[in-house]
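tokens incoming
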């Protein structure tokens, strides 16, 4: 089910510094939500490095970028250092945001019961409405970064 044109599901998750982050607290700014399957995997590392290079400068200005995975805050903290992400990496360890956004990927890597976030990107406008949505056909596909940038206007 598409979230395009709908109010973005709110969430409260821990960032890689073990601080709570609530999506609705970013109202008034555009927000990029970049879900990724797992820290320290090749495609995820490339994606986070690309996002850091293209979008980190937006944080604190007109937009906020959040990376979201089911990894623990400790893993995300090390991943933030490795990728030099200049934006928070959020831990969805209970899969609540992953499921609310419809991006659950069960049995990841052929491992029964291993549920991760499928690679996906949502752009939320200043009023909390989803204005861009991209969900990978499989976790190995990267987003169209130019399309994400265009959605930010």
């Amino acid at each position: 089910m598409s979230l395009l044109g709908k109010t973005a599901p709110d969430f409260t998750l821990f960032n890689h510094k073990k601080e709570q982050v609530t999506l609705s607290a970013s109202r008034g700014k555009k927000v990029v939500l970049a879900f990724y399957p797992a820290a320290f995997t090749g495609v995820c590392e490339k994606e986070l490095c690309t996002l850091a290079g293209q979008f980190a400068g937006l944080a604190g200005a007109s937009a906020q970028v959040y990376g979201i995975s089911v990894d623990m805050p400790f893993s995300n903290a090390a991943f933030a250092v490795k990728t030099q992400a200049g934006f928070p990496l959020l831990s969805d360890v209970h899969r609540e945001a992953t499921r609310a956004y419809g991006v659950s990927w069960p049995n990841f890597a052929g491992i029964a019961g291993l549920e991760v976030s499928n690679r996906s990107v949502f752009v939320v406008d200043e009023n909390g409405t989803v204005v861009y949505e991209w969900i990978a056909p499989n976790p190995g596909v990267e987003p169209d970064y130019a399309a994400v940038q265009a959605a930010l206007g």
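note: The chain has one domain: 12-22+29-142.
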